[in-house]
Design a protein that fits this description.
The complex is a heterodimer of chains A (324) and B (348). Chain A is mainly α and 324 residues long. Chain A has twelve helices and no strands. In chain B, strand 4 and strand 5 form a beta hairpin. The chains are: A mainly alpha (324), B alpha/beta (348).
């Protein structure tokens, strides 16, 4: 048996593949999920906002009015400028400037980039690890299941922030401060993934337990398909629905966790600020009247998390066959 | 029942399941381990090109036998010999793959036996790809089309998903998948019990046609005697994990021996036999975890005596190649007692 030939996919140029691609695309727009989407104005709004933020984050160097990484563009003379509409504000700094003369709007857009990068990477890592663990645990059962699920239980007793602080502590004793600053972002991603994988693992395990006893899995066993191939090709596609929902909801949690960690000062460094870092920096100036430095990144964070959460809620309902 | 050169021989086959409570609860309540004897020393064989049907009430272990035969369960004792190869002895994947190609299984629930995310084409192509029967994509699609047409579906149906088909059509897709690796032997676990009666007949006729065309042998699990009457060459009757009667189907239908077989056949509603006196057998199937002593059937058997409660009956081979496990048959007192019972009930 050659695994390369057992893939259900067609060769890349096959006309069957293109016909399927067309049918799948058409099927999606004719399908229940798209219908439910088009019927929910709130979801469309949340989707548009999320997409706009993704767009701004990805194309930050072109969207943002200033490059906040370019230290030469900073001018301390421009520091502490209020938003454009308040007295003393200047039109070129729409949301004002911070203590170093950085444009707050540009900082938010670049910060969004870091927040989304960390959030996405964390969730993808968590989903990957969690799904694999859940599949192994549910499909093989026995001691593999016992070990993985006990690790998950222990994991669940630690909040994400504690894990992040712990990983940060370990990292700081092992690495020089320069290396720490460079690796900080990976440490945060790892901490977020470490706190989120359990949700994926448990859900996937539950669905796998249901799927593995269905007769199509037994039919594959009788044919003599390797257990790992059965897991990947038969069980996995049938447990992906809940994973998608949890991933969306987890993205909001991950962004918030990152913001919290950055606010506490164990997150990404101020030279490369995320939304959380911006809020922390601005927080120092809140009482001296420069409210815009922390309020605007905060509002941005709230809108982002709310939009992602609304999308996740809708997805959960749309993919739940009992609510259709 | 002795058969020259059978395709499948099952000898002394048992499967015990451990159904003990968790360790801590066992210790607290001072209970021992509990085992469920789903299949208990079953022996039968199937000749090439013939059908053996296993019948029995729910929970008698007939599906477990099917799963043991295809290797979904490991037997506790005994062996399954497929065309001279002892299946338990083969352990390397390579050796098993050669044998696996030659037998397949059809499942009960056509709604669960096809992966809902796969197209029918890929479902049927799976065994072809897995066993390396055809490597070239054009040859695979030719074989898929051939198998779809064998089960009276169109080759174009391959592009659809399973949910676009009815129960009977899905069961035919299941059969097409089973046939794709060109097996000689099919294990069918109640393939018609989830279908409407009219569709059942279609599937059964299709299976009989395929048997004739391709020379297939079937192990056919069912609880429906009407279906079995239609398809079986040989019949095995199971009760609480034991095979109580096995032999040529025509003989058993005409002249059932074991009291349990008589009870099952008497339970078939039949217009022609309206008014006939039936042997009254009441009661429920006892729990297989703590089955009755001796002959498992004795609490429900009108002919049971003290010996039936004490010892498990051995095999008695009767004329017509029927093997029966019953003390009353062995002692030759059954025929007389059945007659006596008939007289009594018609007098009353």
């Amino acid at each position: 048996m050659q695994p390369t030939r057992t893939s259900p996919d067609m060769p890349a140029s096959s006309p069957r593949m293109w016909r399927r691609f067309y049918e799948n695309t058409k099927g999606f727009f004719d399908g229940d999920v798209f219908y439910s989407f088009s019927r929910s104005p709130l979801t469309i709004l949340a989707f548009v906002i999320t997409m706009a933020m993704f767009f701004a984050a990805i194309f930050a160097p072109w969207v943002a009015p200033y490059d906040t990484y370019d230290l030469r563009s900073l001018n301390l003379m421009d520091a502490y400028k209020p938003p454009a509409w308040s007295p003393g504000g200047e039109a070129e700094y729409l949301l004002g400037t911070d203590d170093q003369g950085r444009d707050v709007l540009s900082a938010i857009i670049f910060g969004l980039r870091i927040s989304l990068l960390v959030g996405f990477s964390g969730v993808i890592l968590a989903a990957l690890v969690g799904t694999i663990m859940g599949l192994l645990s549910g499909y093989f059962g026995g001691w593999i299941d016992a070990v993985i699920m006990r690790i998950a239980d222990v994991q669940l007793t630690f909040p994400a922030i504690l894990i992040a602080l712990m990983i940060d502590g370990i990292a700081s004793t092992m690495m020089s401060s320069q290396a720490r600053a460079d690796f900080k972002i990976y440490v945060i991603i790892l901490a977020i993934a470490a706190s989120l994988w359990v949700n994926f693992a448990r859900t996937v395990r539950g669905s796998t337990l249901v799927e593995k006893n269905k007769e199509y899995v037994q039919a594959a066993k009788v044919i003599g398909i390797h257990p790992l191939l059965i897991m990947i090709r038969h069980v996995l596609p049938n447990v992906m629905g809940p994973v998608l929902v949890i991933a969306t909801l987890s993205l909001a949690v991950a962004i918030l966790t990152e913001a919290t960690l950055s606010f506490l000062g164990v997150g990404v460094p101020p030279t490369n600020p995320s939304l959380g870092t911006l809020i922390r920096i601005g927080n120092d100036f809140l009482f001296s009247g420069e409210w815009w430095m922390s309020i605007f990144p905060g509002v941005m964070l709230v809108i982002l998390v709310l939009a992602v959460n609304l999308l996740g809620d809708w997805l959960r309902d749309a993919l739940n066959p009992k609510l259709r | 029942m002795t058969i020259e050169k059978p395709i499948l021989e099952v000898e002394d086959l048992s499967k015990y399941f451990d159904v003990s409570a968790p360790l801590l609860r066992r210790l607290v309540r001072r209970e021992g381990r509990a085992t469920l004897r789903a299949v208990d020393r079953v022996k039968f064989s199937i000749p090439k090109g013939k059908t053996l049907s296993l019948v029995g009430e729910s929970g008698c272990g007939k599906s477990t036998v099917a799963r043991l035969v295809v290797g979904l369960y490991e037997p506790t004792t005994g062996k399954v010999v497929f065309d001279g190869h002892d299946m338990a002895a083969k352990h390397s994947r390579k050796e098993m793959a050669g044998l696996r190609r030659r037998f397949q299984m059809i499942f009960q629930d056509p709604f669960a036996s096809l992966n809902p995310r796969w197209r029918v084409y890929d479902i049927i192509a799976e065994p072809i790809r897995a066993h390396g029967i055809a490597r070239d994509e054009r040859e695979i699609s030719r074989r898929v089309a051939q198998n779809l047409e064998r089960v009276k579906l169109s080759a174009r149906d391959g592009e659809k998903f399973p949910h676009e088909f009815s129960g009977g059509q899905r069961q035919r897709i299941s059969i097409a998948r089973a046939l794709a690796s060109e097996p000689e032997f099919l294990v069918c676990d109640e393939p018609t019990s989830a279908l409407d009666v009219s569709v059942q007949a279609q599937i059964l006729n299709l299976m009989k046609d395929l048997q004739r065309e391709l020379g297939l042998s079937y192990l056919f699990i069912s609880h429906d005697l009407a279906v079995v009457y239609h398809i079986a060459d040989y019949l095995g009757v199971m009760y609480l994990g034991r095979l109580v009667e096995v032999g040529p189907a025509r003989e058993i239908f005409k002249n059932p021996q074991h009291p349990y077989t008589r009870m099952l056949l008497d339970a078939i509603p039949d217009l022609e036999m309206t008014g006939r006196k039936r042997i009254p057998v009441g009661g429920e199937v006892p729990s297989p975890i703590s089955p009755p002593s001796g002959c498992h059937f004795h609490p429900r058997c009108p002919f049971a005596n003290e010996r039936c409660q004490r010892e498990a009956p051995g095999v008695t081979t009767l004329s017509g190649e029927i093997d029966v496990r019953c003390h009353a048959v062995e002692e030759g007192r059954l025929a007389g007692e059945v007659e006596k019972l008939r007289m009594q009930s018609s007098a009353a």
